[in-house]
Write a structure and sequence with these properties.
Length: 359
């Protein structure tokens, strides 16, 4: 065990990537980076993190910022509830903990959006306390190192990994060790074709000894992909575009969008658009003109979004909102000031690139 720890720490000191949240290990930086890294690739997070810290350098700045601006900083990272949780956590820290992240695992777990993994990451990486963390990289490293014959999410296998990770943290070096494990999974013990020849723990790796490294971790049955067809329509009124702000709950809470929704069985996209406008805004739309079709994915969903221009049937613009908290009529060039879900942002980019709207 000691040799594994030592080899890994030595390797980390020579190979750790120069990441912006590794400059000071301030609890605030660690917290924001860990929330951004949930379900998001490291490469994508770096730019978002730099931009975020520049605009919101501390917790106090988050509490003073307008929610629209926070969502805009997050736009494109997906899983928008994370941004809402950051705002709620910042407010709660200001009210209860003098605007600081507590160095207490149980208190961290009470904060919105902070689960076992993030609390462990803050405790170990920011405060250098001996708390284990498990992410996909660490799961893969352990599945190979100990040649685990069941999927890593299997209850007993998962418990085994937690136990091993906890026991392996060298006294006083949790910060480096946890990061070293994750870094090994990201750079060497990679999902396909692990780079065993340069691995610092190769002499202890049971799956390498058994020649099954490429068969670990054992893959669990994949979750089923769900295909969804949706429609949205850009309504212009007196030269301005209608956008509405989604309600405060749900996957895209508080983001802006063009009205629309899912196709029902037997409906064409045009029929669905007319129905959705009536249901969501009580506006009667008439002429519709196809713009494009956008594909995007989130979690297990693969969305086909049919996009249209549309106009009012009777010229009466008196929206009554049923699926949103407010609406605005904005100039086309103002669309870039609002945070939209990925599909609608792709539509806006399409309009911009094809010159269909002056943005
Ligand atoms: S020897 Fe290979 S399989 Fe084993 S931990 Fe290292 S990179 Fe992963």
């Amino acid at each position: 065990m000691k040799k594994i720890q030592q080899n890994l720490l030595n390797w980390f000191h020579k190979n750790a990537r120069d990441l912006p949240w590794r400059k000071t290990y301030s609890p605030y930086h660690v917290w924001i980076s860990e929330i951004m890294l949930q379900q998001t690739q490291m490469d994508r997070v770096v730019d978002y993190f730099i931009k975020w810290i520049k605009r919101l350098p501390d917790i106090e700045n988050i509490t003073r910022a307008n929610e629209e601006e926070v969502l805009k900083l997050w736009e494109g990272l997906g899983y928008y509830t994370r941004a809402g949780n950051i705002i709620r956590t910042a407010n709660s820290l200001t009210e209860q903990h003098n605007g600081e992240l507590p160095s207490d695992y149980k208190l961290l777990l009470k904060l919105p959006g902070i689960g076992k993994y993030t609390a462990g990451a803050i405790m170990s990486i920011a405060f250098n306390k001996e708390y284990a963390i498990i992410d996909a990289n660490i799961e893969r490293v352990f599945a190979r190192l100990f040649n685990l014959a069941k999927p890593v999410k299997d209850k007993k296998t998962h418990a085994f990994i937690w136990e091993k990770t906890k026991k392996m943290i060298p006294h006083g070096r949790a910060r480096e060790f946890n990061q070293a494990l994750m870094e090994l999974g990201a750079l060497v013990c990679i999902p396909r074709n692990p780079r065993c020849k340069v691995c610092p723990v190769r002499d202890f790796c049971r799956s390498l000894m058994e020649d099954v490294a490429d068969k670990r971790p054992v893959i669990a049955k994949p979750s089923q992909t769900v295909f969804i067809e949706m429609v949205t329509g850009i309504l212009t009124y007196k030269g301005k575009i209608l956008i509405q702000k989604r309600k405060t709950k749900g996957v895209w809470a508080n983001l802006w969008e063009f009205p629309g929704g899912r196709l029902e069985p037997g409906e064409t996209p045009e029929m669905a658009l007319v129905r959705e406008y009536a249901e969501e805004t009580e506006l009667q739309i008439g002429k519709v003109k196809r713009i494009t079709t956008v594909q995007h994915s989130y979690t297990i969903y693969r969305v086909t979004l049919h996009c249209y221009f549309c106009s009012l049937m009777d010229g009466r613009f008196e929206p009554v909102l049923h699926a949103a908290q407010e609406y605005r009529l904005v100039n086309p060039e103002e669309l870039c000031n609002y945070a939209f879900p990925a599909g609608h942002r792709k539509l806006i980019d399409h309009l911009k690139n094809s010159g269909l709207l002056f943005l």
